[in-house]
Amino acid sequence: MHDFARKLLQPALRPAVLDYVRWRRALRGARAAGAPEPPMPASGPLSVNLDLTTACNYACDHCIDWDALNLPVRHDDAELFDSLRNLHARGLASVILIGGGEPTVHPAFGEVVRFLKSELGVQVAVVSNGSRNEKIAEVAPLLQRGDWVRLSLDSGSDATFQAMHNPKGRGISLDEICTRAQAVKEAGPDAQLGFSFVITWRGARRDDVRLVENLNEMEEAAARARDHGFDYISFKPFLTRAEAGAEVLDPTQSEQRQEDVRSRIREQLDRAARLASSSFRVVESTNLRVFLDGSWRDYTRQPRECHMQALRQVISPLGTYNCPAHRGVPKARIGGKAAWSGAAAEGVAGTARVLDEFDASRECAEVTCLYNPVNHFLEGMVTGEMDPERALAAPARVDDGSDDFFL
To answer: What Å distances lie between residue 166 and 157, 181, 203, 240, 382, CA to CA?
Structure first.
């Protein structure tokens, strides 16, 4: 899921990556020589996180976007569709309909999915709280191999689900959501259906809010996911926001020693892993893996220049941002919500500006960044430490042989 360097080797993405690397090398060379600077290639991000709305019908205690929920801002639908067309013309290959709010509560959710699949033909993913699975089931027949739906459920029992998510409205239960998820899978059997579980432990907090612990329900959640036809369950550690706004892993937020927390997680993870089969996977996120093996601080040593902000961006009613970890943070803002509409001048200029001004070695010094390895990989080609043609020479696919353009 997070081997982004390997994803960039795929034949459909490789030319755009080469163009980007050549441009950054030429730009640095021109600046060193005092020569005219080459313009940015006529491209855009290859993958975007698209926040359709800030509206949400839950009040999750662990929500990383709490301060951005239910704000009186929205997309102009015509501008949004124009932006997506322009981005597709510039190389956009995948769209993840995700955070800020709950995408399925947006009135045009189905229309957006149909546009992305039927008109643009890009890969599509949906991250949802599961409360409106019928909306996903309506468009699931459009989803193909490589597309996916992931439900953020974070619990094995309904009691913990209710305490963590605080759903608004009657009849929203974990049992009902999982049952209706089967209809999504039946309508779109080629797409992967995932059960997302953010692990919380005693002492973890969002600001002054003490989080509900769910650590002891990992095995129970895996059994529930398997029995309801999910293709996988994905475990990841709780993230909080640093003072500067970035999403960070903070293991010090605990009433137990870090090693005790890790030991409890490992025990639950081992039990969950025993439920895996040829049709059901138990996935350990990169953040969780490096937390458990103690190497998570290695992923905070960022290069100054975050190259991935040119290849993957966030489009939200709040604006366009350089990274999901900095959604809504002013210093990470590329432009307005329509930065890639019209002539896309704001998107191009904003991308070039943040590449120069956003110092990832400082702004992301606390972030256990999933893009850390691929940023160092790209930096090596830009500096000349590696030859881009050779480094990007070998075509690659994901493990099952399909394309995966999600960044």
So the answer is: 14, 19, 19, 19, 47
Number of helical H runs and strand E runs in the chain: 15, 14
How many Å apart are CA 309 and CA 14, to the nearest integer?
A: 16
Single-letter code of the amino acid located at 102? E
**Phi-psi label, residue 33: left if phi above 0, alpha if psi -120 to 50, beta otherwise:** alpha
User: What's residue 396's pLDDT?
Assistant: 55
Q: Are 399 and 13 in contact (CB under 8 A)?
A: no
User: What is the distance between the alpha carbons of residues 173 and 179, in angstroms, rounded to a whole number?
Assistant: 10
Position 327 scores a pLDDT of 87
What's the pLDDT at 253?
67
| 9 and 394 Cβ atoms separated by less than 8 Å | yes
Q: Which CATH number is associated with domain 47-300?
A: 3.20.20.70
Q: Which two tokens stand for residue 189?
A: 């059997």
Query: Tokens in use for 163?
Result: 């305490």
pLDDT score, position 399: 55
Nearest Cα to 399, choosing from 308, 222, 281? Answer: 281
How far is Cα 340 from Cα 46, in angstroms, rounded to an integer? 13
Q: How far is CA 85 from CA 100, 276, 335, in A?
A: 22, 40, 18
In this predicted model, what pLDDT tens digit does every residue of 307-317 receive, in sequence order?
999 999 999 99
Q: Look-up: residue for tokens 């975050």?
A: 306
Provide the residue ranges of all domains of the chain, joining segments of one domain with +: 47-300
Helix (H, G, I), strand (E, B) or coil at 197: strand
Low-confidence residues in the chain, pLDDT < 70: 66, 240-255, 394-401
pLDDT in the model for residue 261: 87
The pLDDT of residue 398 = 53
Cα 345 to Cα 77, 338, 339, distances in angstroms: 19, 10, 7
Kindly write down the DSSP assignment for every residue of 84-118, as one continuous string: HHHHHHTT--EEEE-SSS-GGGSTTHHHHHHIIII
Please give the pLDDT value at position 254. 62
Run of H or E residues at 387? none
**Is residue 17 within 8 Å of residue 8, measured between CB atoms?**
yes
> 350: helix, coil or strand?
helix
What is the pTM (predicted TM-score) of this model? Answer: 0.94
- Residue 66 has a pLDDT of 63
Query: Which tokens in the block code for residue 185?
Result: 């899978």
pLDDT digits (tens, 9 = 90+) for 202-211: 887 777 778 8
Closest by CA position to 199, among listed 291, 134, 330, 122: 291
Q: What is the pLDDT of residue 208?
A: 77
Helix (H, G, I), strand (E, B) or coil at 243: coil
